[in-house]
Design a protein that fits this description.
Structural class: alpha+beta
Order of helices and strands: EHEEHEEHH
Number of helices: 4
Strand order of the largest sheet: 4-1-3-2-5
Radius of gyration: 15 Å
Oligomer: single chain
Shape: globular
Largest sheet: 5 strands, mixed
Length: 150
Amino acid sequence: MIHQLVYYSRNTVPGGDRAMLTNLREIVSASQRNNSHKGITGFLIFDKTWFVQILEGDRSKVTETYNRIARDTRHATATIMSVRDVEGRLFPNWTMGGAMRTPEMQEVYLQHGIGSEMNPATLKSAQVVALALDLQAFEQAKRQGQRLAS
């Protein structure tokens, strides 16, 4: 069994789109380094206002990671949506995958009933997990297309 935690928090990083993109890249890069040592995998969804993240791995390591994240000043009001044990990892190849919401992936959000603004307080954790899996598939298909075009 794998422990899974889904949470959301509000972005507090000042600045415009460039600052947010730089911040997201730093978060994903640091997460990949830290999580690979701890056996944590997951996915981060970011839409300028909200971070929504799925963490999976050993219970103590997931809890430790979430507690560290909750203290991070780049976001506020970290709120756990669900904590559960699952049969296996949903993001086994992602020490931390991430997707910043862009117009090209808007269709994926719409398929999950998420319109122009995402409000994670109104979402169910299963909806977040399904969205993350579809965003992961979208990113992988995009990468595959880029490789074929090369």
